[in-house]
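FW: tagging you since you asked about this chain on Friday. Here's the raw sequence from the shared folder, copied in full. Didn't touch anything.
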Amino acid sequence: MKIIGFNFEEIHAHKNNEFKRSNISTDVTFNDIDKSKLDVLKDNETIKANFKFIVSYKDADNLSSDLKNEISINGLLLLMVTKDESKEFIKSWKTKELPKDKMIGLYNFILRKCSVKALQLEEELGLQPHIPFPQVKAQDTKK
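HL: got it, structure written out here
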């Protein structure tokens, strides 16, 4: 399996209110897996995978509140697979799952691509980064 295409299809960022402390959660879900046809790939097949990446911010002091800040990214992965891998994807997707041996690689790829975009949006909106960064003190930078 090789990833031969990646596209953002929809990006939405919403800042509802300021939280002093936020519970931040990140989630990746796959919405659809389907065969696709590319004429240039004669011996291989392609799988189109639609996904959604979400970063949710809930008020840590009021978890029962429905108010939250959120970044969501819908995207598309295009995978070049063998005929056997294609059958495996379609069979697994009947139960809304991905093949276990392919899942980690796909999640990691999506996290790498979408986390960078989410960090950019968080900075522009003034939201807390969903990836914790260590605080660097002035004395730590001296050598």
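FW: The mean pLDDT is 87.
HL: agreed, and The helical segments are 83-93, 100-125.
FW: great, closing this out.
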